[in-house]
Amino acid sequence: MAAILESVHGPTRRAIIKGLMAYNSRAVGQWGFKRISITLRQRDAIVGGLSAETYLGWMYISLFWVDEKFRGKGFGSKIIRTAEKEARKRGVKHAYVDTFSFQAPGFYRKLGYREYGRLKGFPQSHARIWLTKAL
Predict the structure, then answer these.
(1) Among 52, 81, 89, 106, which one has the highest count of C-beta atoms within 10 angstroms of its own C-beta?
(2) What is the CATH number of the domain that holds 73?
(3) Which residue in 66, 34, 69 sits closest to 50, CA to CA?
(4) 93 falls within a domain
(5) 50 in a domain, yes or no?
(6) Does 118 have pLDDT greater than 80?
(7) Has residue 21 been placed in a domain?
């Protein structure tokens, strides 16, 4: 019997993740999953930051943002390079990220990332873009 839920939260989500991770670990071994968090601060306020995960020899940049007042001043590049340096310390050989066409694909390209996937019309007249870089 299947239950239909409108959303997946808490214990349900944890059970799904636990089952999926157990299955995946049998196929590829230990993941070595670790998080990276970097913040850019002005006094006590967070004005930028990055959240990434390293696992299976890869770093995935899941969240990255710099306040508009601090863009174009090298802070974003420094945050990315700091995350890449930490990933290399962990033995990571590659990084990947996804962004929208209205966000930062050009920024990532300047840092050596190359596009490997694109979904047009996601959202509307834009695209979702995946980029990768050898570390």
Answers:
(1) 52
(2) 3.40.630.30
(3) 66
(4) yes
(5) yes
(6) yes
(7) no
Query: Strands, DSSP E only, in 43-124?
Result: 45-55, 58-66, 94-100, 114-120
Domain that includes residue 60, residue range: 30-134
Average pLDDT of the segment spanning 3-19: 77
49 is a domain residue: yes
On average, the pLDDT of the chain sits at 93
Q: How many domains does the chain have?
A: 1
Separation of alpha carbons 100 and 128, rounded Å: 4
**Cis link prior to 105 (omega < 30° from 0)?**
no
Q: Are 104 and 98 in contact (CB under 8 A)?
A: no
Q: By C-alpha distance, which of 35, 37, 68 is closest to 50?
A: 37
Q: Which residues of 17-34 are buried (b: 16+ CB within 10 A; e: fewer)?
A: eeeeeeeeeeeeeeeeee
For the chain, how far is it from start to end, CA to CA, in angstroms?
47
For 52-93, write each residue's pLDDT tens digit.
Answer: 999 999 999 999 999 999 999 999 999 999 999 999 999 999
The strands making up 34-42's β-sheet, listed across from edge to edge, are 34-42, 45-55, 58-66, 94-100, 127-134, 114-120
